[in-house]
Structure formats: structure tokens, C-alpha cells
Specification:
The chain is α/β, with parallel strands linked by helices and 316 residues long. The chain has one domain (11-308). The protein has 10 helices and 9 strands.
């Protein structure tokens, strides 16, 4: 994937709070308790609850939608401890470093900016074609731990989207984990796929899909799985149309697409369960199998049509 050298980047779409520091420590609140980001699988919309994860595999359920701090198993919970508020400027020095597509080809940070810009440019166009207005979502780059409108979270959650503040949160060290621990190929387009998937959740939030999904929280045909697979499909739709946004020199190559498929396969529920427990339990699925994730990304990529991303009708 190569950017147009003279494409104008908009770094205001990305907040860099990494310079603010990691807070009190990985996965810990000020009092030493685990942050909710390390112990919950979020599902649903703005007021959604969460499900407890099995201890020790919290980091393996990736690409999340992080909820507010109300559990579906309890009527209420005590307020969560917050991390110290970041003290850095919202955009760090991205504005000085990330100005053009040429910068995106030379720097990972600027590549993230360019990818976010392209994804949002596509969805702005897609919404306009349907006489709707797209509301942008910022991506927040953080290190180890971060405060969000959905509560404090740490890097073990993986990349996630918070419906309450309409932001995507990303610790870039995740991509090393994806390659080292999950066997994904890695590469720039694996990063782009993950980011596009999270913006798929933003689209679901904007059009009301999250609010309409039923209460099936886990399982092979649950609403949680269908939401994740649709987000994969939306990521493929963007990939098909990315060159239209003016940020890339040419359509993505098969090698690029293979990076995305490898990442999608690596984080399938069945693949994760085999790696961690040696067995597959479909009743515990939250994101879909490796084959399903590849299938729905490919459906979006081959069609380029968000209308082909209906994962809620029939089989998946």
C-alpha cells in the first residue's frame, strides 16, 4: 500500500496521548485493581453491558466495542476508578510530522493518520450518496492504559471502539502481538484492516445497528458475532473503495489483502481457543471463526457494497 505523495493528511483526526504516560501501570487502576478493559467483552450499543472473560485470555478477544460500566449480570456497580487524565496535547506532534502522503509512506504514525483519513473519507462519501451525514470519529493512540467515556481500559483489550465518545482506541504495540503471538503475517495492511474494522463499529453505531441487535451475547450465531463479522465486511468495503478517496496511488495488491486475511484468520474464535485451551467451544464465540472472518472481509472487498454486509439475516 502506497500513499499519493501529495495527498493532504488531516492529523486532527488522530489524538496522540502516548506522551502522557501509561498511568499507574498496565491493567491497574490507582488503587491497584484491574481495569475493566482487561476483564470484559463488550457487546451492543451505547448503553451496553459486558461479559466477564476467562482469566488469562482477556488479551486474546480482540477488536472490541467497549461498553459503559454497567454489567448485564448486576443491577448496578460501584463507580470505576479512573486513570489520571492525560496531560499531553490532543494531537501530540502529529500535525508537524504528518502533512502529506509522502510522510505516511515514511512513518508508522503518519501511516495511521493516512489510513484513518482514507477510511473516513470513504464513509463520508458513502453516507452522502445515501443522503445521510457522516459523523467523524477520532482515533486515539495510547500507551498501556487510557481513560475513555466507557471507562478506563488497558492495552490488553486490544484495539477497541467506545460508542459513548465515538472514538477508536489503539495501542500500536498490539500489532507486534498480533504477529508474534497469533501468527499473523503483520504488515501495513494488517494494521489498516484492524483500524477499518473498528470504524466498522462506528458505522454500526451511527446507523443504529448496535441498538437493534438482540440480547444474544455469546455463541456461534449470537448478535455479538454478527456485529463483529459485519465490521469485518465493512473493512473490506473500504479496502475495495480506498483508491477512490485519493489517498492511495493504486488499488491494494493481493499481498496487501493477504495481510488482512491473515490477521482476520489469526483472531478467529476457533483459532484463539485452540491456541489457549486446545479445544473449540462454539457456545463461547464472540467474534466468529477464522473462516467466517475471512469470508466477510472478502465479501466486502469483492463487492465494495455496504449493502452486501448483512450478517444478521440467515446463516453466517
Amino acid at each position: 500500500m502506497q500513499f499519493e505523495d501529495d495527498a493532504e493528511l488531516d492529523p486532527s483526526q488522530v489524538e496522540d496521548v502516548r506522551a502522557a504516560g501509561p498511568g499507574p501501570g498496565p491493567g491497574r487502576g490507582p488503587s491497584g485493581g484491574m481495569l475493566p478493559g482487561g476483564c470484559s467483552v463488550p457487546v451492543g450499543g451505547k448503553g451496553a453491558g459486558c461479559l466477564l472473560l476467562l482469566v488469562g485470555i482477556a488479551a486474546l478477544f480482540l477488536f472490541q466495542i467497549v461498553p459503559t460500566n454497567i454489567s448485564i449480570d448486576e443491577p448496578a456497580r460501584q463507580p470505576q476508578q479512573s486513570l489520571p487524565a492525560p496531560q499531553g496535547s490532543p494531537s501530540g506532534n502529529l500535525a508537524a510530522r504528518c502533512r502529506t502522503g509522502a510522510d505516511a509512506d515514511q512513518s508508522e504514525d503518519c501511516r495511521i493518520v493516512g489510513t484513518v483519513n482514507s477510511i473516513q473519507a470513504y464513509w463520508r462519501q458513502a453516507f452522502a450518496e445515501r443522503d445521510r451525514t457522516y459523523t467523524p470519529a477520532k482515533t486515539v493512540l495510547f500507551s498501556r492504559a487510557v481513560n475513555t467515556a466507557c471507562g478506563p481500559a488497558d492495552a490488553s483489550v486490544g484495539p477497541f471502539y467506545c460508542p459513548a465518545d465515538q472514538k477508536v482506541y489503539l495501542d500500536l504495540t498490539f500489532f507486534d502481538t498480533l504477529q508474534r503471538d497469533f501468527g499473523a503475517k503483520g504488515g501495513p495492511f494488517a494494521q489498516a484492516y484492524v483500524i477499518a474494522h473498528e470504524y466498522g463499529h462506528h458505522i454500526q453505531n451511527l446507523v443504529g445497528t448496535m441498538d437493534r441487535v438482540g440480547h444474544g451475547r455469546r455463541g456461534a450465531t449470537s448478535g455479538a458475532v454478527r456485529l463483529e463479522l459485519q465490521a469485518d465486511c465493512y473493512a473490506g468495503v473500504w479496502a475495495h473503495n480506498a483508491v477512490r478517496t485519493g489517498f492511495y496511488t493504486q488499488p491494494f495488491t493481493q499481498a496487501d489483502i493477504d495481510e488482512a486475511l491473515s490477521a482476520a484468520s489469526a483472531v478467529g474464535d476457533d483459532s484463539i481457543q485452540r491456541r489457549t485451551t486446545g479445544m473449540v467451544v462454539p457456545d463461547a464465540f464472540t467474534h466468529g471463526t477464522s473462516a467466517q472472518r475471512e469470508k466477510w472481509f472478502s465479501t466486502g472487498y469483492e463487492s465494495g457494497d455496504p449493502g452486501r454486509c448483512d450478517t444478521f439475516t440467515g446463516g453466517i
